[in-house]
Amino acid sequence: MSSDEFLKLEKIKKAFQLNNGEEYVAVVDVNLNIKKNEIISIIGHSGCGKSTLLNMIAGLDVQTDGNISLEKKEIKGPGPERAVVFQNHSLLPWLTVYQNIEMAVKKVMPELGPKELRERIDKFVNMVNLEVAKDKYPGEISGGMKQRVGIARALAIKPKVLLMDEPFGALDSLTRANLQEHLMRIQQSVQNTVIIITHDIDEAVLLSDKVIMMTNGPEATIGEILEVNLPRPRNRVALQNNKEYIRCREAILSFLYEKFAKDDE
Amino acid sequence: MNKEVIKKILLPFFVFLMLIQIWSIIAINVEDFPTPSDTYVAAFGGVNGEGDDVIGVLSDPFYIENQDDKGVFWQILASLERVFGGFALAILVGVPVGLLIGMSRTAQYALEPFIHILKPVSPLAWLPLLLFIFRDINLTAISTIFITSIWPIIINTSLGVRSVNEDYLNVAKVLRFTSFEKIMQIILPVAVPSIFAGMRLSLGTAWLVIVAAEMLTGGIGIGFWIWDEYNNLNYHNIIIGIIIVGLVGFLLDILMEKLANFFDYRKKI
User: Fold this and answer.
1) Does the distance separating the beta carbons of B269 and A140 come in below 8 Å?
2) Given this model, what pLDDT does residue A1 score?
3) By CB distance 3.0 to 4.6 Å, which of A152, B48, B56, B69 could disulfide with B44?
4) Number of H helices, E strands in chain A
5) Which residue of A has its CA nearest to B186?
6) Minimal CA–CA distance to A79: which of B181, B172, B165?
7) Do B175 and A157 make contact, defined as CB atoms within 8 angstroms?
């Protein structure tokens, strides 16, 4: 299988039926090819349908028209090979950090014996540096830690694609930076295909190989695709004066605030 | 001891003294109304106001004279057995029905009107019908408890199910949970506090109902005992009965609260 036929979106359209009988077209004519192990950001103003797009890839939402396929297989409904990290972490509050990951791994990998199961969970708890919080409940740990558990839970079920819906949107900027570092470090060790929904320009440039810029809704679609040609590992401080980094930032800025400015946010 | 604790002990004590005072005034003015001291003697034994030596109903609550003459303990036990019988049945039927109504719009639209119509029906209205069907005191009492205490369980269970966060259900979808796994691992843990709130209401209702039901069915039970004592002109025992019913109801409520907290994940953290 060629690596450029991994996750494919063809002529995706999503329309909602409004109460007055009219149709609201959220996204239309979205075509996208995502290669294996690529990190993609989808950026756009609120209401551009970027979360809808992610939900359709996850299978939690169904497109009105068009096809989505993963490794040439059409996507029908949600599944663990497309793990989702939700914006508000969605950890089960009655389970500890360890149990939250355990629940997912047990279901997706029922063949694991008790020892292998424990080792796998520990591996991913360690990957996000949460050994100390292993037996704590979500209510007892910080927002950043919860999001790390969410990432560990998603990665532990060995997905083909990791879908992140504004994963750090609800966090303060220092915690967000910290989590971005975590994500980059993890990505170095376990290669994965990642799609990140974001509205943070620096986050998009720092994390991704490609930035997908969406036009405004209704009838939003892909406006531009920006390739970020920065070597990895990336360092956020060193990048501040990097020409390529500045070029990418400016390209996104001009797209969002000149070509597709939206003033009533 | 801090001030708050002293207040919590002293204030109820003063109110208690006031209630005794009001009771005494009523006893003086109403003919044959038992005085507080006579009632105390009737409960715990001793010499009453007329100089008679009395064996209190609570000094030997465990006696069994014959099938129709048993101590207060056995009366309470008989009532509790019926309450728990009906209550257990109400849980067994009510929780699954509540789950169904909470999870399926179809079931909700089909069943909800009947729940709203049957819920406000007094247990005393059911009693003659059930007595006619079962022609048995115990079955009638248990089924009356069942039919009046099932509604809060159904309603609260369905409310609990509907309060499940959409995100948790999305997690279940991504992991491809079966319906059974979804119920056991996501819906029940979320709904349990609400289910227990319903069960607590139910048990309270059941305990209210049993006293009334037993007055009509007769035989044995604390409700019947109170009615029997009225017929025997033992008015002080009616007051003792009321206090016993209140205390047992209070204990049941505390028990349910402890149980509810034990199963409520939010109280563990």
Assistant:
1) yes
2) 45
3) B56
4) 8, 10
5) A92
6) B172
7) yes
Q: Closest to A139 (Cβ–Cβ): which among B167, B186, B269?
A: B269
Q: Domain holding A40: CATH number?
A: 3.40.50.300
Is residue B10 exposed (0-12), middle (13-18) or buried (19+ Cβ within 10 Å)? Answer: exposed
Domain total for chain A?
1
Its pTM stands at 0.81
Contact B175 A104 (CB under 8 A): yes
Q: What is the ipTM of this complex?
A: 0.87
- Delimit the domains of chain B by residue range: 3-54, 64-267
Options 1.10.3720.10, 1.25.40.10, 3.40.390.10, 1.20.120.1200; CATH of B64-267: 1.10.3720.10
Which residues in B lie closer than 8 A to residue A100 (C-beta atoms)? Answer: none
Task: Say whether pLDDT at B207 is over 70.
Answer: yes
Task: Report H helices in chain B.
Answer: 3-29, 36-44, 72-103, 105-118, 123-134, 137-162, 166-174, 179-182, 188-217, 222-231, 235-263
Question: Any idea which residue has 């209510």 for tokens?
Answer: A139
pLDDT digits (tens, 9 = 90+) for A181-209: 988 988 888 888 999 999 899 999 999 99
Task: Inspect the interface and report whether the beta carbons of A90 and B266 lie closer than 8 Å.
Answer: no
Which residues does chain B have within 8 Å of residue A92's beta carbon, measured at their own beta carbons? 168, 171, 185-186, 189
pLDDT tens digits along B166-206: 889 999 999 999 999 999 999 999 999 999 999 999 999 99
Residues of chain B contacting A140 with CB distance shorter than 8 Å? 269
Alpha carbon separation from B201 to A46, B207, B250 (Å, rounded): 45, 10, 12
Kindly give the pairing relationship between strand A7-17 and strand A161-165. Answer: unpaired
Structure tokens of A118? 């424990």
Contact A84 B170 (CB under 8 A): yes
Domain of A209, in residue numbers: 7-81+159-259
In a domain, A113, yes or no: no
Q: A164 contacts in B (CB within 8 Å)?
A: none
Say if CB A38 and CB A228 are below 8 A apart.
no
Residue B217 tokens, joined: 């069915």
Say yes or no for a CB contact (<8 Å) between B165 and A90.
yes
Q: Is residue A118 part of a domain?
A: no
